[in-house]
Amino acid sequence: MNEMKLYIPARSENEVFARNVVAAFALPLNPTLSELSDVKTAVSEAVTNCIVHGYRDREGEIQITCRTEGRRLHIEISDSGRGIGDVEQALQPFFTTLEDEERSGMGFTIMQTFMDEFSVRSKPNEGTTVTMTKCFAPEADGDADAR
Amino acid sequence: MRMQGDRRGDNLYIYLFGELDEHNVSEMREQADRLIDENASSTRAVFDLAGVKFMDSTGIGFLIGRYKRLKRYGMAMYLENPDAGADKVLSLSGIYTLMPKI
User: Strands B11-20, B44-55: parallel, antiparallel or unpaired by DSSP?
Assistant: First the structure.
């Protein structure tokens, strides 16, 4: 078991840093490139949500906690921003509150699809926490080069 | 540079480079729209994603935005060479029904 916590200001320039840090943290578990790509994409979606929706137009902090447990990677990403009034609605594919900004409304759908477990809890004016888990496939013996 | 345009006959090829996320998207939007406006007499635009090393759902929004702009000029849009990661995001969104992968 291993654990890490990362606190970053909610700025879009930190998105690439956040997803690469989580990927680097997962590397000792020897995930496949495809599994790693899924994790990076899901993290990028969650961090983008904190910046674009949680802290819209203001400064704030994003907390990222990661924990490994066997071949499972647990990730929790939180902001203390505006929160989501109707989580059920926000989870619908293609739903977006920002129609004018070329938003796809696919962020939560991607997190749900690319990760094995996913949940979101949110309170208006308090913030949002996304929790997700990726279960990496068992490592094949003597197959290190193919991974 | 995040983008390069290449006009070949009636086709406008737009090559994208780098990571397509919230941080880079506004610059890419400006560059793509400039290329589209300058080549509005083309019949179709092909976005080549071979140089895109990462893409999240911001990329879907970006591509749909360009699709709408192209449509105003009567131009069709196509995608080519997404890597496995980008292809997974694009397939999930159903975007290939609007802009086929060639």
Answer: parallel
| Interval A23-73: pLDDT, tens | 999 999 999 999 999 999 999 999 999 999 999 978 999 999 999 999 999
What chain A holds in terms of domains, given with CATH numbers, is 2-139 (3.30.565.10)
CA distances from A25 to A33, A140, B24 (A): 14, 21, 24
Topology, domain B3-97: Transcription Regulator spoIIAA (3.30.750)
**B23 → chain A, closest CA residue:** A12
CA distance A134 to A75: 8
Q: Which residues of B touch A (CB under 8 A)?
A: 19, 21-23, 29, 54-58, 60-62, 64-65, 84-85, 88-89, 92-93
Enter the tokens of residue A9: 């200001």
What does the pLDDT look like over B19-35, one tens digit per residue? 999 999 999 999 999 99
